[in-house]
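From the pipeline queue, job 12 of 40. The input is one protein chain; the requested action is below.

Action: predict structure.
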Amino acid sequence: MHYIEDTEFIRGKVPMTKSEIRILTLTKAQIGEKDFVADIGAGTGSISIEAARIASKGYVFAVEKNPAAVKLITQNAEKFEVGNIVIINAEAPSCLKQISRIDVAIVGGSGGKIFEILDALDAKLKIGGRIVLNFITIQSLANCLEWLKYHDNYSYENIQVQITRFETVGAYDMPKSNNPVHIVTAKKINQKRCANIIRLGMRS
């Protein structure tokens, strides 16, 4: 599978998931050719487009509330000629009702509603389906792990990744580090849902 370089995407001023994190996220997602994929907080659409190329006989639902980002997703989808992306210009989780089923979900932004988004995804996700979540802030990560701890129908792993690029400065190669990113991968192992989740009240 040929992954797209960052410089190939139309970006504007909307944040974009960098290529190394995209590759890891998509690897953890294990998307199938016929899968229905939800990309929550799609941004420029970089992950949506890569996912749509993998799920060539399925659909990717790019959920994004920012109109400027929606325009970029549209432009990038046209540039890379992927016709199986459905753009949903709305805020999760209420808009997830529009999706009939979800095989894989990728969450890049939660807008402070990680508990609600995970609840909605859990109701749609098939057995064996995966949710891959990217976090920069500790608060968002903590909320996600809290939800998973009290939902024993999921197995999960959490890794932290920090990418350092080297830039040429005169005669030297100087390191420039990106922010560390937590990638949480949760797999739904059965339909049982644990009740009485304890919520600490943190904002994600």
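Job complete. Strands lie at 36-40, 59-63, 85-88, 102-107, 125-135, 154-161, 164-169, 172-177, 181-188.
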